[in-house]
Amino acid sequence: MKITYYGHSCFSVYANGKNILFDPFITGNDLAKDINIDKIKADYIFISHAHYDHILDVERIAKNTGAKVLGNFEIYNWILKNGIENAHPINPGGKFDFDFGSVKCVIAQHPSSFMDGSYGGIACGFVLTTIDGNFYYSGDTALTLDMQLIPKFTKLDFAVFPIGDGLTMGIEEAIEASKLVGVTKILGVHYDTFGFIIMDHKKAEESFKNVNLHLFLPKIGSTIEI
């Protein structure tokens, strides 16, 4: 599957002819200053939770592309209030079918609030099943044993985990999460953007390699295949 990394936790997956974008936070990220968000293609946008570093550019990209935006019910209502009519709610435990395949919403252990401090609903992760492959994006989360339930329903080709530590899982927890969900290929996100989540890339790559796991840390703006 082709994956384009836009920095922080924002990435897109091209699956079954559709561009699926996650947690768009680009204009507020100095590391992604060379990305022109008005050129980003998106048929769907998934939002894992309401923190500003995951929703900042949702409105602009959605209005540019006409993408369908999905998030928990509180985020869904926020999306509608911001003038985005092409929206769809999905809460943990829920599953829906779309033209790219199916998505199941799962639990994430993390707070969630909008920029004004109002309640942003429960934080989520997403499991996507497509003809081109299946993957799990955990969203911002701590390590949780709930992850071991995911392979009971879906055989995954790869997973996307936060690895910057401090506010989410770090390297060691992400390795354990990889084992729980049964993957050997991991896209690392949520690192380096802020001073308190700066990560040692060499240590991260070696730590995963030492337990026969492949950690992908693509450059911002680059496209890779997993």
Features:
single chain, 226 residues, alpha/beta, Metallo-beta-lactamase, Chain A, seven-stranded mixed sheet, 6 helices, hydrolase activity, UPF0173_UPF0282_UlaG_hydrolase, L-ascorbate metabolism protein UlaG, beta-lactamase superfamily, Metallo-B-lactamas, hydrolase
Report on the structure:
The protein has helices at residues 52-55, 58-65, 73-81, 150-153, 171-181, 201-209; strands at residues 2-5, 11-15, 18-22, 44-46, 68-71, 87-89, 95-98, 101-107, 124-130, 133-137, 158-162, 185-189, 214-216, 223-225. It has 226 residues and is an alpha/beta fold. Strands 6-5-4-3-2-1-14 form a seven-stranded mixed β-sheet. The protein has a seven-stranded mixed β-sheet with strand order 7-8-9-10-11-12-13. GO terms for molecular function: hydrolase activity. This is L-ascorbate metabolism protein UlaG, beta-lactamase superfamily.
